[in-house]
Amino acid sequence: MPPKPPPKRRKISDTRQIQRRTRVGTKKFTYAKAGVDIEAANLTKQRIRSIVHSTFRPEVLSDVGSFGGLFAPKWQKYREPVLVSSVDSVGTKLKIAFRMGVHNTVGIDIVSHCVNDILVQGAEPLFFMDYIAMAEHRGDVVVEIIEGIARGCRAAGCALLGGEMAELPGFYHKGEYDLVGMIVGVVDRQKIIDGSNIRPGDLIIGLASNGLHTNGYSLARKLLFEVAGLDVHSFVESLGTTVGEELLRPHYCYARPVLKLLETFPVHGIAHITGGGLQDNIPRILPSGIGAQIRLGTWEIPPIFPLLQQIGDVPQEEMFHTFNMGIGLVLVVPAQRCPQARQFLEKQGERTFLIGEVVRGEQKVDFV
Fold first, then answer.
1. What is the mean pLDDT of residues 187-206?
2. pLDDT by residue (tens digit) across 42-101?
């Protein structure tokens, strides 16, 4: 089928014709009148300066507002340093923040998600950068978001090195925004965890999640708000809290306890249980010819998941393919060191479960 011809252009010969086409009495325009208020954004940058400073490490050389963030790593700590990076967004969990008018937790979400993603390769997080885009600049909302990001950075031990506040009128719905995060970490080449050391007989430790984290929200919102007719302020007895408070629980960060574990214990593989659940994320670290058996009933499933399953009559396979189902991070360890590794993590305040083992077979997860 031949391509469509381009539309005919209407020629306007000079500025006088443009002026005649312009509404009579139009006032002088500014960028602010077009929907982008640079002065408001500059005031917000001043408000967040001390918040951002609270995350700085000694390696940070630049200040808030610099064109680029400067970070001088202490390479002498590493024999052969390898940088590890990741980028992600909060996704439709933001819709809950909009409904609740609560914006100081989604920043924790994005930091934790990014940090956990590089943790699986054994990386220490160094610095984080954010991107906030909204239809119109709302200083108070931006400050809340940055407060959450800073809290997440302090918990993970990384610096908030910089970011971008984009005001995009006509692109986003009024009152809504998008939040994206980028992380850079470092690991010694010889200490990279890529799953290549996983062997049959290794045991699989599951670290508890505190809820949905940041995945499965499109299905959760459909079930809770459209099918069940609840709203964010509905108190649900089985949850012990409101729907909104349950859904805004911040994504948990596993960096500090797991990095301490890696200093003294052999860990053959780590998987962050995000979109795709245990079913899709564990195979990402398994070598060819190696499978995993996950034993159902070996860990506590938070009440939000049975509630969602009941509301929508969701098949169990779909639940495990969509949600983390109570396991936020998986560690694969040698069988003989598993009890000590669990004990170490539990002393750090983690809730751990022995949820399965590594077997010979297809590169997939079998639930037994």
1. 97
2. 899 999 999 999 999 999 999 998 999 999 999 999 999 999 999 999 999 999 999 999
pLDDT for residue 2 = 73
**What six digits make up the tokens of 160?**
């908030």
Distance set, CA 61 to CA 71, 76, 83, 101, 287 (Å): 6, 18, 19, 35, 41
| Architecture in CATH for domain 38-191 | 2-Layer Sandwich (3.30)
Q: Which residue has the tokens 């443009």?
A: 18
242 residue type, one letter: T
β-pairing verdict for 124-134 and 177-188: antiparallel
In contact, 266 and 349? CB cutoff 8 Å: no
Neighbours of 320 (CB within 10 A): 21
Beta strands in 220-313 (DSSP E): 235-236, 241-242, 269-272, 290-294
Residue whose structure tokens are 């009941």: 310
Domain boundary assignment for the chain: 38-191, 203-367
DSSP string over 91-121 = GGGHHHHHHHT--SSHHHHHHHHHHHHHHTT
Confidence tier at 4 by pLDDT (50, 70, 90): confident
| pLDDT of 216 above 60 | yes
Q: Tell me, yes or no, if the two domains 38-191 and 203-367 fold the same way.
A: no
Residue 151 CA to residue 54 CA, distance in Å, equals 9
Q: What is the CA radius of gyration of the chain?
A: 24
Q: Identity (one letter) of the amino acid at 187? A: V
Residue 6 has pLDDT above 70, yes or no: yes
Task: Specify the CATH number of the domain 203-367.
Answer: 3.90.650.10
CA 342 – CA 205 distance, rounded (Å): 8
